[in-house]
Fold this sequence. Notes:
By secondary structure, the protein is an alpha/beta fold. It has 10 helices and 12 strands.
Amino acid sequence: MSQLRKIRYRLFAWRPFRKLTPSEEPIDVVIPIISKDLHILPLCLEGVRHCVEHPIKQIYIVAPKQDDIISFCQQYDLCFVDEKSLFGLSPKDLKLKIRFADGREADRSGWLFQQLVKLSGKIGTCRHFLCIDADHVLIRPHVFLTAEGKTVFYMSYEQHQPYYDNIQRLIPGLPLASLSYVDHKMLFDKEQLRNLHKTLEQQHGSSSWTDVIIDSYDRSYIAGFSEFELYGNFVKEKIHRPWLQKRLPYKRLADYPTLQRKWSRTRWSLTFPDYMRQNKS
């Protein structure tokens, strides 16, 4: 990340913002997971139920059909969606392998599949749906759709050039924001997604927007595509807000009221990445 980008984000994050009036339109919530996410998902759900400033019609869990996941959904009153039902294939069918110079391989099929799930617009009955990562915990109120109908995007300081190179291959000339849309959560509009699908298919002469994205992936990078960067930059009418997020190791895990009390004065959200799970003590 460049020093200029850090400065730009800090100036953006700490300036005063006008209060947003949330839309009263109901939204759905969509969370793609696998079994290892179940231990942290209850905190994510508490954050959604306490801090999303919109009526929530239903919360959908998109996952492989496994007994532990189905039982969890029943326990927490969530709607289970079998991931295979969305595209008629499973993540492993993507066969997305990244090969490193030393001969090692990394399978990124599941990672890309969950991004295609978010972009599909196939889940739920509401026009707008919030996608949030299972390890992301909201601790301050969040507006995602204003009363005027504008989507609110929470911007981060992330910077990964392959994401932007990919966008220029997908939609050449699309203007790119000076900060990042990668912030672990995003509200999607099914009408905007239909426009995005149509744009991708027309741009590349394909009958399938999913194939366009899969084919555009640069296999020399372990992270070569971002659904958040693509969609956020594609939408024209929008409002930006800083994410003010804190990444924490698992040794800092606590119950939701404790996390909210400790961090909500300075942060709007917390993330407990799986790669930091080993830091429990």
